[in-house]
Amino acid sequence: MAAPTAVIERGAAPPARPLGEHLGGAAFVVAIITGVTLVVIAALAASRADGHAVSPAAVIGIVVGVAMALGGLRWADALYSGADDVQEGRALLTCAPGCTGEPTSDPWKPRPLWRGVVIATVATGLWAGAAAGLVAVVLDQGRAPFLVLAATLVGTTAIATAVVDVVGRHRGAHGTRAPAVLDASPTPLRRRAWREIALPLGASQFAVNAAAAWLLFHDYHAAVGPHALTGAVVTADFPVVAIIVAVYFGMTATRWGRVDARLGRIELDDPGAQAIDRRAPVGAQGLVYLVVATVLAGNVVAWFVPGRPSLMVVALVRGLFAALATTVAAGAGFVRGAVNA
Amino acid sequence: MKTRRIIVLAGLLLVTAGMSWSARADDTTSPARPDGVISANVESYAARVEYDIPLPAGSGTIGQVVGEVRASAAGENAKGLAASPTALDAVVGGKFSDPQGTGHAQNRYPQTECFYPGSLVDTSFAFPTDERKETATTPPIGYATAQCGAGPALDLRSHLGGDKTAAAGPAVTAASTTSEAIARPVKGVLEATTSSTATDLSILNGAITIGTVDVRGHSQITGKPGEGASTATVALTDINAGGVVFSLASTSDNGADSVQLTAAGQTLPFDSAAGRTVVDAANAALKPTGCSVAVLASPDRYPQGFLFSRPEPAIGVTDDGNSAGSYRGGLLITCDIPKSISEPSTFNPQRAQILLGFAYTGAAREPGDDNFSIGGFGTGDLIGAPMSPAVANVLVTAPSATPAAQLTPPPPAAVAPVTEPAAAHTTGPALIYPRHLAASTKWILGLLSLVLWVPLTNAGIGRLRRALSDGAEV
Questions:
Q1: Percentage with pLDDT > 90 across chain B
Q2: Which of A80-89, A299-308, B128-137, B369-378 has the lowest average pLDDT?
Q3: Which B-chain residues 192-211 have CB contacts (< 8 A) with chain A?
Q4: For residue A76, how far is the Cα from the chain centroid?
Q5: Which residues of chain A have pLDDT under 50?
Q6: Does the beta-carbon distance from B383 to A221 stay under 8 Å?
Q7: Omega cis (within 30) before B349
Q8: Cβ within 8 Å of A, B 253-292
């Protein structure tokens, strides 16, 4: 009799924490993960700079760009994560219904959702950029090597992203019981998944990956050798991009779909085809097929890349590939989360 | 409550300031740099041969020395290449390195390169000794050395002596070539100097012969008005083109250009009627050989070959002393290569373009506050592709003209082995100006950042506290 009890205890969800306490812990985790990501970005940026050191202007540019990319995405995910925390019983709302934290409008409607993303993008960019401006003043004429760039990125962008995460989660958590949300009319699943979620995400990743392509390849000037800008070089890491995008957006959008379904925001377009047996939910292994399909699509894209592309072409190609992979992963992930909920 | 917020804001400001000072502390480990970005360029060669097959394919540049030194807030670097005896373009170089196309290089390129910072600061190549294992015991008939160092400084030397050495395919042979280049800041002067000399050149088995090619170039700046200077000269003596003998002297001295021909004991301006008559007579005599000559003097564009390109350099001397540059070319020879010579290649018709004598030097400084330039980050090749894929694909597969070093075994010790190393720098590098961010820029940027940072941080802290308190009184 003891064994089953132990199994149940191990499998039980952790006890719900008050929302404020939960947000603090979540923000800490987000800051750590973001910090690690930023160190990698700093290393890539420094490795591509003359003398492996970037000018003060470049420091500001990189900080602003990275903060915008992370801040906007963080806002959308935090909204859903906050709601998911409440729905899954990880966080407990401590204030009374109708308290000041409760949104008066539906934050998950397409327009408010993506407007919030844009506001978060601009706000994090400005905030982190302003702090980077102060760093640039102190740098005076000097250039920032890797450590300085990494410290600046972490000190500005990680903090801004963590704040966005806390604010977004808080709004999302309270949104689960907001009348405006509960009274919202449901949206057909396909429309919600592909048009309202996956396509905007894909568009955002087009811009992010085009900028990242410039960061990665702007110093590839050689006519031959490892620093020659060739079609093979710029498409070599497509499988890696496909895996990262499929895993991140596939998992993230699954949570988004689950939250939307539990909030009653979506309805099945074709219940006969979309309704699944609860005992056999759509598994995460679908992501593997997505990765394979995306890699194959990448090979097709690589076919059309010129042997010696310009940096503009490289940015477009890599942006398009990432957008395609993101759209597919996010759309499929969202549908999976919604039908499994 | 306001007091606590102010304390938090002040604390965050201190953190940011501390982060900034850590950056500052890191930066102070670097020595001071000249004000702005300084750069000096050098390039000279005795002859450059380019083949059309019929698509353009590069061949080789005989006695070439080419390099650049550059210093900015990011640090300093120097890079250079010295031919020994011929700097090969990528296509021909690939064939030279791997003549059987096995995928494994058999020959080292007959050239040497240096780069500072890095491990390639002092390199050399003895020709043909260092070419491959089998030639390791062959006494050198030429050498190239390339030294790049702090300052930044660049010292390139190339020398080839001996009998007629076919140095760039079947089109050109030369008896000896010597090239040198130095670029560095010295005692407040940023200077770039280069020279190339070649003797006893023969083109297309003697269709055209030249006694001597001698080119020199020098540019210098101090960053002070009126102290910039740049000269470039090209002199070709004893040119025998189909029996018409003449000499050519072309000079650019601080923007004053002159081109003179000497024929039958008379020196004439090239653009005079008599001068043109000499060139016309030479072309008429050369017609049966398929060749023609033209005086290049000051090229419209930088003669940089097909495969590689560089931005058009600034030419002339500016009044503010921040830029000085000049280049000069000698004689441009165009030949339709007879099939007997172009074989065994299947590409016909083949044409060779040969530029005899070229020198370029340039020194430049971008003064003042460059913190707002995207230093360390070029915009890259956003628009133009380095080479169209169609041309690239053809070039990769084209069995272009083979360097003669591959066709002809090196003569057995025709000349005493060259062993002396390149001379060391006699004077150390010197800085030109200290560098600092302009005070106005610093204040504007600092205030703008602060004006943005304080309210945004205040708003961020407010939103954060409200969220973390979750409805409790804050």
A1: 14
A2: B369-378
A3: none
A4: 8
A5: 1-11
A6: no
A7: yes
A8: none
d(C-alpha A138, C-alpha B245), whole Å = 67
Q: Which amino acid is at B188?
A: G
Mean pLDDT of B382-397: 34
Asked if B467 and A307 come within 8 Å (Cβ–Cβ), the reply is no
In percent, the amount of chain B with pLDDT more than 70 equals 67
Which string of DSSP letters, residue by residue, matches A130-152? HHHHHHHHHHTT--B-HHHHHHH
Structural contact between residues A161 and A27, judged by C-beta atoms closer than 8 angstroms: no
Reduced to 3 states, what is the DSSP secondary structure of residue A278? Answer: coil
CB distance B123 to B83 below 8 Å: no
Q: Which residues of B touch A126 (CB under 8 A)?
A: 452, 456
Residue B268 identity:
L
Q: Residue B90 half-sphere exposure, CB side, CA atoms within 13 Å?
A: 18
How many other β-carbons are positioned within 10 Å of the β-carbon of residue B346? 9
> For A133-183, how does the pLDDT look when each residue is reduced to its tens digit (9 = 90+)?
998 888 876 778 889 999 999 999 999 999 999 999 999 999 988 888 888
pLDDT tens per residue across span A183-230: 888 889 999 999 999 999 999 999 999 998 888 888 776 665 667 788
The residues facing A72 across adjacent strands are none
> Strand A91-92 relative to strand B291-297: parallel, antiparallel, unpaired?
unpaired
| Residue A203 pLDDT | 94
Q: Which positions ≥6 away from A263 have C-beta within 8 Å?
A: A83, A108, A176, A181, A182, A184
**CB B375, CB A143: distance < 8 Å:** yes
The Cα–Cα gap between B31 and A136 comes to 19
Asked if the Cβ–Cβ distance from B446 to A133 is below 8 Å, we say yes
pLDDT in tens, B43-61: 999 888 877 665 555 578 8
Q: B436 at the A interface (CB within 8 A)?
A: yes
The DSSP secondary structure of B398-409, one letter per residue, reads ---PPPHHHHSP
Take residue B121 and report the two structure tokens written for it. Answer: 């600061």
Does any CB of chain A come closer than 8 Å to the CB of residue B420? no
Residue A143: which of B375, B388, B450 has the nearest Cβ?
A: B375
